[in-house]
Amino acid sequence: MTGSGSANDIKDRRRSTYVLHKALPYWTWILPLLLFHLATRLSLAFQVDTGVSISYLPIPLGIVLCFWWGPARVLPAMYANALFSASLWGLHDVSEYPIYSLWEVLAVGISWLFFVEWRKGKPWLPDLKETVRFVLWVAFPASLCNGFLVAWGLVFFGDLAWDHFLVSSLQGVVATLYDTLSFSVPALLWFTPWMESKGWSKTNGAWEERETSWDRNRFVNLKKKRILEVVGVFLFCGIFGRLIPSIEYWFVFGLFVLWASLRFGITLALIANIWVQIITLIIPFLLGEIESFKGSKGGHDLVLLVDLAILCVVALITGRATSDTKKELRKRRRIEARLIASREQYRKFFEENLSANFIADGTGNLLGANSSFLRMFGFETQAEAISKGLADLFPSYDDYSLFLQKIQIGSQLESHEEFFLNKNGIPVHTTGNYFASLNKSGGVDTIRGYLLDDTLRRKLENQLIESKKLETIGTLAGGIAHDFNNILQIISGYATRMELGTIQDSSLLDASRSINAAASRGAIIVRRLLSLARKGGGSFRTIDINQLVNDTVELLLPTFSETIRFQKELGEESVLIWGDSSQLEQVLINLCLNAKDAMPDGGEIRVRSFAVKGTMIRESFPLSGPNEYICLEVSDNGEGMSEETKKRIFEPFFTTKNKAQGSGLGMSMVYGIMQTHEGMIQVSSEPGKGTSIRLFFPLKPLSLAHS
């Protein structure tokens, strides 16, 4: 099967080549003969001996046409032209024309075979190495065949003297080499893609990947400055060369060729070669400066040709090397540009990401962090964060070690909740994804983290849980209060009947009065429980908060000892809120009594009121609106509270006092009343530094449902 498939592939390729060969226009059979004749006519002008010219264009033309249309069309046309041209060259014996003409065809055929073998499967002059190989494998064999074979044939048939053989051979070799490099290479480079696009070539897209392909825009889009630069240097070389005595002016153009090779690469190096050939050979002949080359025995002309050929080869190789260097530089610049763009894109992604991103090593040292990370943990600069380190952000090194153990197990942690402390020791709750790079021993090399700040969400959740807990307790307390109130009414009723009855025993009468007094105290507790459960009702109206403070403090002053001092800091203007004055008075009394009890040896109670924007307290109360609030603050310099006590102060029946001093419902009632007034409470306290409680009331009127 494999062998059959390979044979079929070969047949298909041959068939496709034949179809493509037949698809070429018919004029491609006739045009080569005409082109060869014109090239021969032009070459006659540079004949230095019989059958020997310093520029023989049919050879490079044959190489190009063989590549485009194949040897089957080109070589017969070349042979026919050679037969016809033999008389033009002045050869003597007509019977020897067929054999003599074979040398020319043989030279092109051998050169074409070398060219096809070298070109097979390779891009056209891709680098300096292949350029040198082209000179050695294509141009040089064609030159040797044309120079030595043709000269030997002329000597063999008696049309050339033997003492002229070496000079004529070298002239043929150098001339063919020069013509191949200055004519074949530009023609193949520039016109092959155009011929392919027209369907006039059988190369079948062989040169599509070539960097130096024919591109009309390359010449159309040339900047005027570059054109003037080329023309200026070219004219300078010509004028300067003409003014220097004893130096052939064509030699100065070598500077231009080398400059063009170094400046613009292989493309303009080839153009420069053509211009030098035109300036040094064709234009002088047309202007009459060179009447004829015939009769020259090769001294001056051979030196001229050798110099031109060397110049052409050097220009070609230099241009290719320049193109390679520029190509490599362009490639390197493209890679560097892509690398810079990639780095910038990564930097923007890393820096502009809303999540806090960081990279750390296995020992806990930070290697890098974005701006979100710096803001989350309170750092001013990345250097400050790096000096602090990731391990230092954990509450303890044991916590960091536990984190390392977790990430080491699966090399990643997804949606992992972690607790940190920022640089000031403030708790930061996070949820993030962590990825670790492990070394061969299984240890952690680097850690990449992408964190989201959950501190606000945690605070909201805790507030919601606390609110629901207090609401549940309040509802339960309300139900208990209703049932307990019924029992109290029965007890109070029977005690009253006993007092109004005919009881003569004074001890029973005192007992009934004690029962009534206890029932009254129980009723007060019931009312407080109902207030906690928000079932106590209330009368809402406009209240001047400063006036409320003054009246309450004036009421409390006579009952407080002289060791307790009041300090009021109230605004000069009246501040109005919407609320129940009796409930708010009860709130203020409870807070002042708690402050007094926290200072058994005396102290200062400070009461102040001030306005505050909702946006300023949003960190503590995320659900606060943008409107203004009035803050009523009651603070003392007493014993203060621990964190555990602060968490429980709003729980019903929780108290730090003895049973005779309090029931534990005071702060619960404060919380319930603040909820009724759509207010918020903030508690700040440290053991030994006192307590500050802030009440925030909205300045806008409440809904009419509260009226």
TrEMBL record:
One Pfam family linked to the record: PAS
EC number: 2.7.13.3
Catalytic activity: ATP + protein L-histidine = ADP + protein N-phospho-L-histidine
PAS domain mapped to chain residues: 342-382
Primary enzyme class: transferase
Membrane-crossing segments per the record: 26-44, 51-70, 97-115, 135-158, 170-192, 226-244, 264-290, 302-321
Protein name: histidine kinase
Organism expressing this protein natively: Leptospira langatensis
